[in-house]
Design a protein that fits this description.
Six copies of one chain form a homohexamer. By secondary structure, the first copy, chain A, is an alpha/beta fold. Chain A has two domains: about 1-100 and about 205-220, Rossmann fold (3-Layer(aba) Sandwich), CATH 3.40.50.12500; about 100-205, Rossmann fold. Helix content of chain A is about 45%, strand content about 15%. In chain A, the strands form two sheets. In chain A, strands 2-1-4-5 form a four-stranded parallel β-sheet, sandwiched between helices. In chain A, strands 7-6-8-9 form a four-stranded parallel β-sheet, with helices on both faces. In chain A, helix 1 (about 10-25) packs across helix 9 and helix 4 crosses helix 9 (about 205-220). Chain A is globular. The interface of D and E includes residues 109, 110, 179, 201 and 216 of D. Chains A, B, C, D, E, F: This is Hydantoin racemase. Chains A, B, C, D, E, F: Pfam families: Asp_Glu_race. Chains A, B, C, D, E, F: It catalyses: D-5-benzylhydantoin = L-5-benzylhydantoin; a D-5-monosubstituted hydantoin = a L-5-monosubstituted hydantoin.
Chain lengths: ~240, ~240, ~240, ~240, ~240, ~240
């Protein structure tokens, strides 16, 4: 099975890291195909950049689908709290999995309530909104910010782990979470450290999404085309491309 | 005062119609500046096209702001149930008004519950989602589809009015709505006919948004920059442009 | 256009202050007509006094409507978190605007969540209840009390501003509000001071309500008479009047 | 124990009927003291009349409390879906029971969901709002109108029963209610007929409220005075009285 | 009238204490019949034990009903936040009252919001879940744990009261509760001490449930048999019994 | 990996059918270990039987865990809308998956809203309640009953498919569902027929649960033990066993 994993930003090293995390959990017969969008921000932290990412990912996946020699079986959008999953669902016949939703759905199997620990304070409302739309907010205890930007996450691993552990602990003790979701596609490698420090299960969205995508494919299930996610109607569209 | 009114699709005649509706209600000192996006769909009916519209409008407004000789005081995004308002709010210091939200907020002053009557069945969930995110769904009785596409709306005015009246009547009698919002930027001229046939107030989003934008400007109020809608952080962004 | 602005208490100097705030934002062609009820409390702080105010305002507006030489175009009920708006809507054909709702609706255009900062702790539940009924509580982060009574508000402006800034700051930092509504008709003149100290938009209900009322009149919209706010049915009613 | 039962309208024969219903279920040591307000409508069907009733009941109970030779132990406000209970709670140290809430709370012990069947269509939103404020709407399947006015209820008993049975049956079969609340103080005597015809428990608000009031008195419980329902603060109030 | 009061654990002294509390408030013609289950835990603190209790109580009540010489009129399940009430409702024609729900419904008559103060932190989610299912969570301010286990409650009365008062005070001041429910069947005797220390009404579930059960019997009301709580269908069932 | 799949009723042929469905989707290295409870009902249709099932499954799994030579990696409770999952989570260190929740979580990836089509009308509220507790009801369009009992499902396959298709079609067209969950453990083999007739994705709980369980094991995730699902505290428990 081939699963496309679309990074939401234009930073190739992040695409590589996400692909590596995905491969670490993927089944032996699963091929992970990483995608980097042609336009947008080097890191996505806010609505404007997230909307750019949504369109850039949709265009990248469209382009890949039109030119790839081999078909693919599922797509993962590897941005936490980002816009766009619904557009991919319209464009494709294969299942689409957003890592925000995969993490939350997975967390709900593991405890009475879960929290998300993310990067900057300004991204908290985006995540809250995506969970609300996805129907996954009733058991969300809180979304908390570590205060670190996406690019800062990788600069000093110890500082990053300390910040995530601090907010996770507050989530568990103050907000009564019992499970933590790491709220950024670039936090995949940190789950074990946070789990050890807090004693609660820690869910990474990318790896959770890989197992969800594989599951949907194995179950022979894909997006309903009856209404919301029907293919776009034929019409005249001017496509966006990356400026030179 | 100058108010930008951004059409969400690339059809210039629709931009003209929206601008005319806006001007009909604008105050004597208000200049309406219409904007047509450089890329996207000729009509927006679904998530993929709506995401394209969101980015195209944001790029068009950014471009206008960077090059216009005169400043503007507010922006209206004239698409019903479309993505993107949050991105504009980050990019601008002036207030941003989405017509979906302006219509619903206005309707709430007029009756115990309101319904939206829109175009195609597939756009109903988009409108529901925008109202949910905007915190305006508690008093929404229903969102109903007329079954007519955006482009069909103008083909046969009698058929269009008949379809809107049929669904509005069902909304009033079956869903217990007391006010109707016309759920498409291109329905502005039809409000009076629907009001006459149903006997309930009918709100058009474009005209409602003009009065909201003027009100915010007169009150000296604009988007909070404290968290969610802070300006994008400085970073490397590859911009999308229209393909040739 | 003539807009009635009804104070909810019997203190004439407050009526004057509310009228002055309303006039400061009203359009050049708008006449503000202040109304003071004939019975009720000198300041309204609780349910019993609020119910008295509801009836006193309804009776005062009825009386004005029956005897005024000139018609009026809209009515504003200038009490924050008070009962009664629905009764006025039944009695009148012109639009009715409650300042609690005008402030909240206006705030929702400006940020992801808003808080209300009001007078005494005991009035917090009244405001929460009115927002719940109005369908405006989903994005309300909190209602906070300054601890000052209505009559204390004007005694020491510095103390009042300090109390409002203290609670507004807690609302922004702790409750994650991005906009503040001043929760008392008598706080109109303090918005700028709170905005300067907190850096977030501050909405005053009276001025917001004036722009809403003007907008509804310009849009030709008024209360739906189809069900909830139909005129009272003809029946025998013994009217209340002020005791001598 | 002495329980005041306040009719919300000025029709003395209704007060008598309500008192008779209350006495039929009251314990042997309970004295029912009926109260008729001095002003307001002969029957209450809408917000304006309901606000009049709220104040008239509060004034009547205040007046009774000030002049009665014997104290009373609880007060029942015998109007369905009417404003005012909160004001009585502030004025009194003894428990206050609203029949809308007593019926709903009682119904919740008897089935998974309940419906209310009331008089006119226009009163449905008032009942919905009171249940929402009371925190009793989560298990409310529907509020349905029989189409009969308060005064019509008693004109033709067979027609009334038929209308109530028709709506109750729709509530059970279509809305999935399992219990019916009769939504008018004047329907007390009809519960058994509706129960026989529908096969589900039928709750009358007046009789339910009597048992609730007696229970609270026996448990030694009364309204919390810590915040919302603290006594009104001392201040200058002009009282309303009935016009002559 | 005879009311069965079923303890949820196997500790006979607790059954005695619960029966004593019930008798203290029961009417002169009410006989309280205590029931102790034949299997399950000596104290119930968690889901596994609560499920055991649910079945053990159902089997005990079935057994009693099959063998008792005199019929009974109502059943109270005297466990706070425990599973099982719905099963009893299917098995019996007489009303069933859960003390969690009786306490919350009673508290809602007494203040704008209520909190529950219970034993161990781990039981908080069980109580929250039962209130959610019962449609009684909208006005629940919080469920707080004293940190004392069921068996510790009786070891040191002063320590117990101090812990309950500490959490009750936090509930009132921080969570804005106005009424406290004591969240354990074994706390009946402590209500007065907590009320004195906090100044707010304190509701005990067992005594509240007795008055609710008596009220339902007097009103001639019992569980609806139309759908959810219809009697079990005839089928082959292997019964559980206590191991030897 | 070894996954226990616990039937909730005592009918061995159903256990076999569930195990066969599970094996059909399980990975090549997954061993499915079926469990049949020692007591309870031959089919579970209502709360009393569901509570029996909850305890019987917990006792059966405890017993298996205590005596099995090989450990197991996850447990699936294969009853739709049944009580008990929380108790298993306390007893075990390995993940526990309820098929009701697995089906709903899976459906949410596939469409904007989903419906459940189940057996008898009386089981609808049980499923609604489980979805509410699980935080999965926000996007549930409806739970509909086919009118067939568990044992009737297998008697006439054509009739069963016809009934499921009828209700599924109503769910899609009337309730606006876009995905159908088959709401009974015994419907596994019917998904394809319903999908063909309706054109929307159809999710079976047992097969969905197998992929969820495998995913959790592969991700190294299990139930949080921090609060709600901590192991039962040591105490004296009398165990239930099957009567002879």
């Amino acid at each position: 099975m081939r699963i496309l994993v679309a990074n939401v930003n234009t930073t190739g090293s992040m695409t590589d890291a996400i692909a590596a995390a995905a491969r670490a959990v993927a089944g032996p017969d699963t091929e992970i195909v990483p995608i980097t969008p042609a336009f947008g921000a080097e890191s996505v932290e806010g609505n404007h950049e997230s909307y750019l990412a949504a369109v850039a990912v949709q265009e990248a996946v469209r382009s890949y689908a039109a030119t790839a020699e081999e078909p693919f079986d599922a797509v993962i959008q590897a941005g936490y709290g980002e816009h766009g999953r619904e557009g991919l669902q319209e464009l494709l016949d294969v299942p689409v999995v957003d890592i925000t939703e995969a993490a939350a759905s997975t967390a709900q199997y593991l405890g009475h309530r879960y929290s998300v620990v993310t990067t900057l304070d300004r991204t908290v409302p985006l995540i809250e909104d995506r969970l609300l739309l996805a129907g996954l907010s009733a058991r969300c205890a809180s979304v908390r910010a570590s205060g670190l930007s996406v690019l800062e996450l990788e600069q000093d691993r110890d500082r990053t782990v300390a910040a995530l552990v601090r907010e996770s602990t507050l989530a568990v003790e103050h907000d009564r979470a019992e499970v933590i979701c790491l709220g950024c596609g670039g936090m995949a490698g940190l789950a074990e450290a946070v789990r050890e420090a807090t004693g609660v299960p820690v869910v990474d969205g990318v790896t959770a999404a890989v197992t969800v995508a594989e599951s949907l494919v194995r179950l022979g299930l894909s997006t309903s085309k009856i209404r919301t996610y029907a293919p776009p109607r034929p019409k005249r569209i001017v496509r966006p491309v990356a400026e030179r």
